[in-house]
Amino acid sequence: MTPDRERTWSSGAGTAELPRTAPPSSGTGVPAGSFRGSGSGQRFGETERTDAWWLQPLIQAVGLTLLGLYATWAAFQGRFYEYKNYLSPFYSPLFTPSWWPFSPAFLILGIPLGFRATCYYYRKAYYRAFFGDPAACAVGELKSHGYCGEAKFPFILQNVHRYFLYLSIVVLAVLWIDVVRAFSFAGRFGIGGGSVALLACTGLLTLYTLSCHSLRHLIGGKLDCFSCVAGGGPRRKMWSVVSVLNEHHMGWAWWSLFAVCFADFYVRLCALGMIEDPVFYPFSMFDVSTKPFG
Of the candidates 173, 238, 184, which has an alpha carbon nearest to the alpha carbon of residue 206? Predict the structure, then answer.
C-alpha cells in the first residue's frame, strides 16, 4: 500500500474510507476551534433549549458574589477574628509580624484563594456565571471563538492548581489544630457554638480538598495498572475512596465555602460581644459539684 493511500477497514457490508483529519495541535489534542459544538457562532444566549438554562449560572453568580464580598470584607477588617479559644479560618495560620501593616489575613488567604480559583469545578462555575463562556451547554457564548484549553496566558496559570493543593493540605492540618483548641476551655473539654462551627467548617474543607481532581490523579489517575506498581493495592483503595468523594466535589465546594464564611461570622459576633457563646461541658454531668453549662 502506498503511503499516501487512505487507510480502510473491512466489515461484512464492504469497505469504508476513514476520514482524513488534520494533525493534532500541541496542548489540546485537536486543532484549535475544531468540534466547537452547538452554541458556537450563535448570538449570546441564543439556543434551542426550552428549559430554564439560565437559572443555574444566575444562582452561581449570586452565590459567588455574596460569599466573595463577605470574605473580602472580613479579610480587610484585620480585627475581631479571635475570641477566647476560637480563631477565624480566614486568619489561620495566624501571623502578626510587626513589619506587616495590613490585615494578617492577607498573609495566608492567597493559598485557599488560589486553590479555589484554579479548582476545576470553580473554573466551570465562574466561566459560565461571569464570562458567559458558555453560559450553559448548547447556548450561544458571550465570545464565540472556540475553546482552546488553558494553553495560553493568562489561563495557563490555571495549571498550578496541584501546587495550591499541596499548600492547602498544610493549611488544613493547621485548621484541625484550631478545631482541637476550640474544644478546650481553660483546660476543660467543652462544646461551644464556635466549636461546632469550626468543626463543620474544617470537616467540609477536608471533604472538598480530598475530593479534588488533582489529588485523585496524583493517587492513581495516571496509572494504567495498579497491580503493576509498588503499593498498587492500597493506592487503588485510596483512589476508590477519593473517586467516591469526587462525585460530590461540587457540593463540597459550595458547602465548604459557606461554612468558612459562617465560621468567621460566628467568631466575629462573639468577639464584638453581639452574641454569647454557649458552652456545654458533657463530662460535668457526672460531677455533681459542677454545672454542665458554663
Answer: 173
Q: Length of the chain in residues, anyone?
A: 294
Round to whole Å and give the CA distance between 71 and 265.
10
Helix (H) or strand (E) holding 15: strand 14-17
| Pairing verdict, β 279-280 and 191-192 | antiparallel
> How confident is the model over 228-246, as pLDDT tens digits?
777 777 778 888 888 899 8
State the greatest distance between any 2 C-alpha atoms of the chain, in Å, as a whole number: 97
162-215 pLDDT tens trace? 999 999 999 999 999 999 999 999 889 999 999 999 999 999 999 999 999 888
Asked whether 236 and 244 are in contact (CB, 8 A), the reply is no
Per-residue DSSP letter, 293:
B
Residue 282 amino acid letter: P
Q: How far is CA 24 from CA 5, 6, 29, 84, 159, in A?
A: 20, 18, 5, 60, 21
The cell numbers describing 237, all together, are 483503595
Give the long-range contacts of residues 4-9, CB within 8 A, separation 24 or more.
none
Rounded Cα distance between 257 and 53, Å, is 24
Of the candidates 283, 291, 64, 48, which has an alpha carbon nearest to the alpha carbon of residue 183? 283
What DSSP designation does 184 have?
Answer: E
* 63: CB partners within 8 A, 6+ apart: 254
In angstroms, the CA 205 to CA 230 distance is: 30
